[in-house]
Amino acid sequence: MKTGTLYLVPVPLAEQAASKSFMPFVVETINAIDTYIVENEKTARKFLKEAGLQRPQSELIIHDYGKHKRSSSLAPFFKELMSGKDVGLMSEAGCPGVADPGADVVAEAHRRGIKVVPLVGPNSILLALMASGFNGQSFTFHGYLPIDKIQRGKRIKELEQLAQKYQQTQLFIETPFRNNQLLEDVLKNAMPQTLLCVACNLTGEDEYIKTQSVAFWKKERIDLHKKPAIFLLYRQF
To answer: Whole-angstrom Cα distance, residue 66 to residue 91?
Structure first.
């Protein structure tokens, strides 16, 4: 029996950023399928509307892959795919599978021999890297750093050493309501000459991207509280 295709559907990174986020082929795709696996049903329906979904949303089949359902079997999410129907996978923001629990769904699709098609859309990691001025040929995304301040400080120093040793850009993130604390810890533990880029609310109306030395940042005052942000460290010889 022929299986369907799993389309990885990107969604906006910020409010009022739909026109910057949905490519024509994405719009065509969402109007050709009626089944989705999503991280949050409410926001997924909002994104589909913004993207230009033409069919009534009451006709959609939506499997909610929320955090309270990830310990159960993935089999129910694959019923339509295994019967030959195409399905879309959507994350809470950005690209499915990148710093996103949807990676488990993609992995299961490969195990089942299902074709996976990533669609073009916004990715905060690449957008921040593009705008940082740092090395774009060698970089590592570390996701979240330790919450414990001592462990976090140690990790920041390790990333700084990696950046200098390999001339490699180091990227990491934090839960938006802890962004200010993370920035404070970076400035406390990194060397003055280390370069730091802060990219906040990418593609949004109040998008903020700045690259400066740690010494400079210690004189700067910015508020990143509850704003999606990504941090990049780099050291030049």
So the answer is: 10
Model-level pTM greater than 0.90?
A: yes
Measured distance CA(175)–CA(145) in Å, rounded: 10
Residues 6+ positions from 157 with CB-CB distance below 8 Å: 189, 190
What phi and psi, each to the nearest 5 degrees, are found at residue 56? -60, 135
The maximal CA–CA distance of the chain, rounded, in angstroms, is: 63
The DSSP string of the chain is: ----EEEEE-B-SSTT-HHHH--HHHHHHHTT--EEEES-HHHHHHHHHHHT--S-GGG-EEEE--GGGTTS-SGGGGHHHHTT--EEEE-SSBSTTSSSTHHHHHHHHHHTT-EEEEPP---HHHHHHHHH-S-SSSEEEEEEPPSSHHHHHHHHHHHHHHHHHHT-EEEEE--GGGHHHHHHHHHHHS-TTSEEEEEESTTSTT-EEEEEEHHHHTT-----TTS-EEEEEE---
Tens of pLDDT, residues 38-95:
999 999 999 999 999 999 999 999 999 876 566 678 999 999 999 999 999 999 888 9
Classify residue 1 by burial, with Cβ atoms within 10 Å: 0-12, 13-18, 19+: exposed
What's the pLDDT score for residue 236? 82
Could you give the domains of the chain?
5-118 (3.40.1010.10), 124-234 (3.30.950.10)
